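Office hours follow-up: a student asked to see two folded examples consecutively, so here they are.
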Amino acid sequence: MTPSPMKIHRHTVKTSGLAFVFILSALMAFTSLSTDIYLPAMPLMAKDLQADVELTITGFLIGFCIAQLIWGPISDHFGRRKPLFVGIALFIIGSAGCALSKDISQIVFWRVFQALGACTGPMLGRAMIRDLFSRTRAAQMLSTLMVIMAIAPIVGPLLGGQMIEMSSWRAIFWLLVVIGALMFMALNGLPETLPEEKRVKASFCGAVHNYYALLTNSRYMRFTLCLSAYYAAAYAFITDSPFVYISFFGVKPQYYGWLFALNIVGLMAMSMINRRLVQRHSLEWLLKCAVSGAAIAALVLAFGVKLQVGGIFLIAAAVLVFFSMNGVIAATSAAAALDAVPNIAGSASALMGALQYGSGIVSSLLLALMHDGTPWTMAWIIALFTVISAVIALTTKTDVGDD
């Protein structure tokens, strides 16, 4: 049965449960789509621009994490819909700027600009879920959305790989302009989930105080840092996998998407399983199991690459297990973190997103600075941050409460 919104304010736009889920899924997929679709083109872009194109991901993540800290308080004050419209408009402008860029500095600038808008999708999507659903139900809803939104990172690299066969990498960014325009129109079918009486009326100083309160909330920060460390590892793979598969192992760009899609299929499967598991087990217990499994896979990856055994098959298999665990990790950690601070869900989701995707800045910069032309740098970065995530999760106490 498809989850549907509950207790939506009477002045909001009416929509069916299916439409609500579809639009939220598309919003939450904006981040992955903005990067995954041009992954197969990165080696070609590096050759064309004569620069480290890993910086285009770094620039996007910088804009993404900073902007969320601003959009969070804005959404708590003005509601969720208005910031979404402005955000998607910025995304469209940034995508056009990327397509028209002449050098690496220009494209990094427009990637930052693109991120200023793209960040509103997943951040406000999570906040809207917390506006409407209880702790366990929110985890179920997030798992459902992850199944649907996983279409983007499957189709994105496949589509991007085919587009560079027929056109240039610039066409990929023009496609993002079109997608952004379609999303802007779809927002008209999205309800406002934060009624007037629940909106935060505090000033900017109040927003800063909210972030201070979040940073000093140990329970919220544990779940947020666990997710952030895992995403630092995930972005090491996202950033370097085109070079590992295409440049190192010689996989053709149009086939790279299939290797990348394999991981998303695993993520979708675990998300579907997680929808049932959250009804039987605590979020904390599921999170501990998932990050432990991801850590084991990451260590197998690192040792396999260091010892030069298994080749591309070991890398693909280990990353499949590692990435699949995101179907549990993202949903359970986000639901548990937001449950700790329900009254400022917008700011909480913003800070979570800033740290979650900001952690990718660390891994992408490490790859740009320390890449040695082999999979080793990617492998040890994945292992390091996944183990950190596991340690944080395993030292978190279980709370079986629900609201």
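And the second, which I mentioned at the end of office hours:
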Amino acid sequence: MKLQRKWHAGFLTVVAAIALSACSEDPFETKKEVTTEQNTEMDHSTMDHSSSGDVPETLKNAENPMYPVGSTAIITDGHMDGMKGAEATIVGAYDTTAYMISYEPTTGDDRVEKHKWVIHEELIDAGDAPLTTGTEVKTDASHMEGMENATVVIDEAVQTTVYMIDYVSTTNGEAVKNHKWVTESELTTAN
């Protein structure tokens, strides 16, 4: 009888250990946590670095931009590899509201967080600028695959001069034409 009890106790211990291990996470499995900082480092592989240069009809040229059309400036804040530190030639300068946005691409790809920038004139039925943080609106911007006709959430609004620029990537030597957009605070005077 004692042997049978010991066998039952041992059997129950093994069963309990298996059950508990099945319910717990694998202690040897390493997990990759995504921090907010990593989340803002977007994959811009689907971004149209160059564009046709077409701008919305309602977009107004800047009257007295810090960087006039034809001048050069250094990009101080790159939205993608190869931008930061590159020399930009100013192709267009426009006064508007620029928005940092987050959205679910219409392609079904992963959510894009804190994309810089779309401008007020690229939003559909947006009313008066600036829109407040948290506002949801659709965009007809096509800077990235899956952006056009997406519903976006406004993360930040900046009243500024935005620039369309040409530059050569510092990482791969690719010539980028009519890149939309960089803000005035993302440029500095070329030496």
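Two things to take away from it. The first helix runs from residue 2 to 23. Residues 60 and 134 are 26 Å apart (CA to CA).
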